[in-house]
Every structure is written in C-alpha cells, then in structure tokens.
C-alpha cells in the first residue's frame, strides 16, 4: 500500500486525484504545514525538501508532485499519453511547464500578494505578470481541444486541476472570466467522482487554518532573518 503524505493545498490535491482515479491502494498521512510538521525529522527523512506531497511505495520514495504523478501513472498504466515519442514529448513538456511555471509563479504571486510584508510592489508586479502569462498559455492550449493533450483526460489535466481550483484566491475573483477554458476543464474534472473523493480528503483531518505567528514561522522561516 502507498503511503501518501498530504496537506490540502494545490500540489497534494493533484496526487490525491490521480490516486483516486487509478484506484491504487493508499493510506493518507496528514502533514499540517501551518503547525510546522513538514520540518520534523520524520518527514524530512521522506522528503528532504520539507514540502508536501510525498509518497512511499514499498522501497520507493517519490517527492515533488509532478514526479509523483508520472510515477503513479506509469505504475498504473493509466492517464498517460499515447506511447509514441511525439506524444510522450508533448506530455513531458506540459507536465514540466506546470511544475516549473504554473506552480512556482502562481504560488509566489499568492505569497507576495497576500502574505509578504511591505515593501512588495516590485515582487507583486513581477509574479502577477508571470502567473497570468503562464495561465494564458494554458488557456490557449485548452481553447484548441477538450484536454491538455487533446481528446483524452490525462495526468497533465490533473496537474492543471490542482492549481485551477484556487485561482479565484490566487489571481482574483474575475480570474475565470479571463480563463473560460481553464474553468471548463475545472468544471469537467470537478464533476468526476474521483475529484470529489480527492477533495473530501481534507475533511479526514482537522488541519490548522489560522495564519497566526506560529504558522508564519512554520510557513515562512526566512522571515526570522529580518528580525536581526
């Protein structure tokens, strides 16, 4: 059975969806990041980067959400691109685009817009621009076809879904008015029973929601350096 280290945030959500879609047996282990549980020695032994998600599958440990998606899709033989070099190249390109672009720029925009201390105008401007630039590329891809890789639902769509769920908070309440095809994909996936089960995982543990001083220390340890 796969051990799945989970927190109800965008990157673990992708993995939860793929686990539910494939039917692979797993047990969820909550990691409450606002309580600092990602910094414990036990979790760092699983993921030395101290981030969720991570999985342990027998003797195999995988961390970083898109690496986990690829591992699980290959393990199950489901939700992959057609087995040709051209299609695999397309799949890997979009999967890494989400890993290196969508996640980091959206996450950094959320951080600087909602949580960072002033002055922050330069950072907010940069990350807002880059977050929107990346999401507009996804929008253009989805304007051409139902799913990221064409006619068939894949792990790439699941990677998009993890972050698309939080776009009104991340990019503003009008985000979907500007990204109608992203919204279409989100609604399509949300209607799937596996997505509903993945979303329900967050109700299995009482995760801390307050962003108090202790949570800020756990989430943004770099800020302690500013106090000197």
Automatic annotation (TrEMBL):
SUPFAM superfamilies: GST C-terminal domain-like (SSF47616), Thioredoxin-like (SSF52833). Residues 84-211 form the GST C-terminal domain. InterPro entries: Glutathione-S-Trfase_C-like, Glutathione-S-Trfase_C_sf, Glutathione_S-Trfase, Glutathione_S-Trfase_N, GST_C, Thioredoxin-like_sf. Residues 1-80 form the GST N-terminal domain. Belongs to the GST superfamily. It comes from Rheinheimera aquimaris. This is Glutathione S-transferase N-terminal domain-containing protein.
